[in-house]
Write a structure and sequence with these properties.
Shape: elongated
Largest sheet: 4 strands, antiparallel
Radius of gyration: 54 Å
Mean pLDDT: 74
Structural class: alpha+beta
Number of strands: 22
CATH class of one domain: Mainly Beta
Oligomer: single chain
Number of helices: 5
């Protein structure tokens, strides 16, 4: 804003002012007009005498208070935008912080949703796989049932009564007496051969009654794709080898089934492990590691939670299936540290002449009966067997008989 200074009219002689502007009265009204870039101040002419004009020429020029107020207002206008700009910046910063927090919350919720979605997809895939397994098992069971019905029908036709009317009424009794006589004399005849492995290497054979199948240990038939060793299922309905189940990385030396859960297979291997495998899903459900190769294994018939593993140094490890960390007890060998080639458990039987229960461990140097006094105490008893060459001991729980197998040239039958 510019202010025009007052002008004095020039005279005709030399341009000198004829009179000085009379001093204005403080109380007199003033008019300030602002037109663009200049401010004009109009004052009423004072009709005072010449003395007042002389006093005005001596006094300095004074601006009105209204003009000063207007000038201060104009000068302070620059401070208003600075304060407003600071408030706007603060609001922008707050909005930015809120936006970042909203983005963070959105990203976290998105990650959680993605995690839940992946989990749901994995569960869905797992359930689909289980459904496929169950469907396959159901189809196999139906096929085996039809084959079993056909086999029973064929057996019924082959054991039909004689054609003569005189002996037709006695035919059921006659066939029954023949079967009893055959079982007493232990007459067996060859029925059928089943090919389990083209490459050989089958070592241990075990029978699963609920699934009505035999299990034969063998090396993997596809060693390049699935190395190691496992078991081959052989159905007793049609006497055909059906499926291979991989279990261990080295040779399998022992197989045993649980009485409580007959589809649960216990296996011992030279890869220093003892494993539990479910034959319903064909998967390993538990693995126990040892310091030595495992030569044999068996279940406890008095407590289904206990399993035993015979090692190559002659020791027997006791495991509790409820404790998956390590073995709970070790039975040290009494004689030389020969591998435990065979393990068998005899349950307690109070009505028998031999009521004790315990573990029979057979090695190449002989056999030992570990009587189980309680859950943690075992008392060893040396069995009177010929030393050298013992390869296997099988126990018949009801008759309390044991069948001891030696290397070629020796076989011994033992009764406890």
């Amino acid at each position: 804003m510019e202010i025009d200074s007052p002008r004095v009219p020039e005279d005709g002689n030399g341009g000198q002012p004829e009179a000085v502007i009379a001093a204005e009265d403080v109380n007199a009204p003033h008019v300030i007009s602002d037109s663009g870039s200049s401010t004009e101040v109009d004052e009423d002419e004072d009709e005072d005498d010449s003395s007042g004009a002389q006093q005005t020429g001596q006094a300095p020029l004074r601006l009105p208070a209204t003009w000063a107020f207007s000038q201060r207002s104009v000068d302070g206008a620059s401070a208003v935008p600075s304060a407003t700009q600071g408030a706007v910046q603060t609001l922008l910063q707050l909005e930015e912080v809120e936006g970042q927090a909203l983005i963070s919350r959105t990203s976290r919720s998105l990650e959680q949703e993605q995690t839940l979605r992946r989990k749901a997809e994995l569960e869905s895939a797992e359930y689909k796989l289980k459904l496929q397994v169950v469907t396959s098992k159901y189809g196999q069971a139906q096929q085996e049932l039809q084959e079993l019905k056909a086999l029973m029908a064929q057996t019924g036709r082959s054991s039909a009564p004689l054609s003569s009317s005189s002996s037709s009424s006695f035919s059921p009794l006659f066939s029954l007496s023949k079967r009893v006589e055959g079982s007493r004399t232990a007459q067996y005849s060859f029925s059928k051969a089943v090919l389990v492995s083209q490459a050989g290497g089958c070592r241990v054979l075990s029978y699963c009654e609920p699934l009505c199948c035999l299990l034969a240990s063998q090396p993997s038939p596809h060693a390049t794709l699935v190395p190691g060793c496992g078991v081959k299922k052989v159905s007793l309905v049609n006497m055909k080898a059906s499926q291979y189940v991989p279990i261990h990385s080295k040779q399998i030396r022992g197989l045993s089934f649980s009485r409580e859960n007959n589809s649960l297979l216990l296996s011992a291997s030279l890869d220093n492990t003892v494993k539990l495998t479910s034959l319903l899903t064909n998967t390993v459900v538990q693995t126990y590691k040892t310091d030595k190769p495992v030569w044999s294994c068996c279940w406890s018939l008095d407590n289904s939670n206990y399993i035993y593993a015979g090692l190559s140094n002659g020791s027997v490890l006791v495991y509790d299936t409820r404790d998956t960390s390590t073995h709970i007890q070790e039975l040290a060998p009494l004689r030389s540290r020969c591998p435990v080639a065979s393990l068998g458990y005899i349950p307690r039987m109070a009505s028998s002449s031999f009521p004790c229960g315990g573990l029979i461990a057979g090695s190449l140097e002989g056999a030992c009966f570990w009587e189980q006094v309680n859950e943690t105490t075992y008392t060893p008893h040396i069995l009177p067997l010929e030393s050298g060459g013992c390869t296997d001991i099988q126990v018949e729980t009801e008759s309390r008989h044991c069948l001891v197998t030696y290397r070629p040239g020796k076989t011994l039958f033992l009764r406890l």
